[in-house]
Amino acid sequence: MPEIKQRAELGRKKKATFGRDLNLEEFSRQGGAWEYDPDYRQFSPEERSRLLATGIELTDEDHAGTFLLADKAIVHCQTRQPGVEVLPITEAASRHDWVKDLLWGLVAVDADKYTAAAELDLDNGYFIRALPGAQISQPVESCLYLRTDRFAQHIHNLVVVEEGASLHIITGCATHPGVISGLHVGVSEFYVKKGGRLTFTMVHNWGKEVHVRPRTAVMVEEGGTYVSNYILLRPVKSVQMYPTVTLNGEGAVARMQSIVIAHPGSELDIGGRVILKAPHTRAEIIARTLALGGVSIARGHLVGLAPDIKAHLECRGLILGNGVVYAMPELEGRVVGVDMSHEAAVGKIAAEEVEYLMARGLDEDEAVSTIVRGFLNVKIEGLPPALEEEMEQAIQESGKGL
Amino acid sequence: MLEIDDLWVNIDDKEVLKGINLRVPVGETHILFGKNGSGKSSLLMTIMGFERFAVKQGRISFLGQDITQLPIYERARLGLGLSFQRPPTIRGVKTADVLRVCSRGAIVPEVLAAAYDFTQFLDREINYGFSGGELKRSELLQLLAQNPKMALLDEPESGVDMENLQVVGAIIAKLLQKERRPQAREKSGLIITHTGFIMDYVNADKGYILLEGRLLCSGNPRDILQDIKRFGYEECTRCRR
Questions:
Q1: Is A281 inside any structural domain?
Q2: Residue of A353, A357, A375 with shortest CB distance to B101
Q3: Is residue A286 in a domain?
């Protein structure tokens, strides 16, 4: 048995460090046998609307590539622009010998039972690569879709941005409107080579009893840039993730932004870690959490291992209703010459702010929405218009009934 | 324009206004003097309708309508505007957005800001890190955008340097239509001032002294200010009682 499989076997029952422990046997591994759909014809208007709200437009137009996996079936996979390659991970592994050397290069296969499950019982995943020097102007759209209730989806993704290349991926993870429960396990490993740039925008829109366990690690080489945007606006049972970015080459940059709303019944444990290993690297983590009755743990960890690095962590939580926000920023400097800072604040909307705006003519709901919109005002470029509308709707709804 | 009859107001269990009677006719600007803690800001906040200021007795009417129980935003929409003494910071909400809100979309913030050298603040979070003078200019530009029929100005010149005082004075004069003949003015103002500096830029019609929640004196605002400077508040109120 190859070493990876052996390690996965050993990790099969290992609990994750954070998040509630899940019994994987409570989920089904019987996904639907969905057929390949070159024209997206099998999607009902209801599904289309839900996917649109997740940033998934279900069109090949205006996209450099598209990828859609429903349960365990590849439903759509297209490459539209030269310089970019989009494949199912299983196919990429057979097409490129070197792919298997990158898999499990950044995430430990035996990290916990979820990584082990992704190796031992893989469904599929995407492989997206920008060729050396390629400036991919349009985003690649990927969608990981739970279409069968109680299904446990096991995904392994690989992204490679070659030297000097630039790529934007929008990935929407969602459930069918009729799906309430399920599990999504998604291992993602991203390699940003020298001078490359990857912008990765991930939108989650799950059913309210769905558990989500992403396991993401990113390696950025000299002069490379990694920008991550994470958006979670709708109810979900639990999300636990702690993506780790390693800035491995001089001058590499990482910026991680997240906007999450914790609805009643949601347990969110969402972190971000950047390890600054090389001189003159820079990192910024910006987290905005809105608690609407759920529990949200916002972790952030910056590790300075080289001189002349600069890193900042900003974690702000706004509590509306009975939510709970734990903000846990950590700074770890290990050499002379690091410049690291953090700002964390958790609070409720101040009555004087609401009344201030009311004195300008806004009614109470409008005033609260304006404040919430300001709170969530993190600049994310290149969002599809439908997703911006979805954000606006979530903001409007969040202020209701205070 | 504004009529207040026998107004009694509490903050929690403490009486802060005790039987205020006040009339501000259309087109007139009145000045409120008084020591710190005498109830001046409480009066403006009560007129605007802030929840903390509980009306125990009396009536406030504006443009002939009883507004004593109206929520803040309805008073604002009727035409009352307040410039805050210490406005709150709202993180993430840009000054330009608030200017847009104030005018209900009727003005272009960039044009308004350019006219008063405020362009560099449009993209900044409202009131965040503003100096005293910047806060006052921001407040007054918001009122210009709101275009109220009656402006309630809480110490518009405090913390403002001499250079900016001129700008602040010019904005207030515009708000209150001071460029028009008195009979042609349609806007009214009620201004709190400690120093009276603002009266160099804005002609006021009437002044009052508020002491311990009671209006004890009224008259020509310049005469009142002169007396306050010469004799202090205690003597002044004794004399004019």
A1: no
A2: A357
A3: no
* Contacts of A317 by beta carbon, 8 Å cutoff, 6+ apart: A288, A289, A290, A291, A296, A298, A325, A327, A345, A346, A347
B2-240 homologous superfamily: P-loop containing nucleotide triphosphate hydrolases (3.40.50.300)
How far is CA B185 from each of CA B18, B29, B38, rounded to the nearest angstrom?
Answer: 31, 10, 30
Query: Domains of chain B: which residue ranges?
Result: 2-240
Nearest 10 degrees: CA dihedral of A203, B123, A347, A324?
0
**A247 falls within a domain:** no
Q: Given an 8 Å threshold on Cβ–Cβ distance, is B76 in contact with A374?
A: no
Q: Is there a contact between A375 and B104 if contact means CB atoms under 8 Å apart? A: no
Minimum CA–CA partner of B105 in chain A: A361
Instruction: From A186, A203, A227, give the residue that closes a domain.
Output: A186
Residue B11 touches partner A, C-beta closer than 8 Å: no
Look up the domain containing A8 and give its range. Answer: 1-186
Q: Is B146 near chain A, with CB under 8 Å?
A: yes
- Please give the order of strands across the beta sheet that includes A166-175: A73-79, A65-70, A140-146, A166-175, A197-205, A225-232, A253-262, A282-291, A309-319, A338-348
A157 found inside a domain: yes
**pLDDT by position in tens, chain B (length 241):** 999 999 999 999 899 999 999 999 999 999 999 888 899 999 999 999 999 999 999 999 999 999 999 999 999 999 999 999 999 999 889 999 999 988 887 888 888 888 888 899 999 999 999 988 889 999 999 999 999 999 999 999 888 888 888 888 889 999 999 888 888 999 999 999 888 888 888 889 999 999 889 998 888 999 888 888 888 887 765 665 4
Which chain A residues have a beta carbon less than 8 Å from that of B146?
A: 360-361
Of A353, A373, A374, the CB nearest to B88: A353
* Count of the separate structural domains present in chain A: 2
What is this model's ipTM? 0.94
Cα angle: A34, vertex A40, A42; to 5 degrees: 50
Contacts of A370 in chain B (CB under 8 A): 90, 93, 97, 101
Please say which residue of A135, A160, A186 terminates a domain. Answer: A186
Interface residue A358 vs chain B (CB under 8 A): yes
Which of B51, B97, B146 is nearest residue A361 as measured by Cβ atoms?
B146
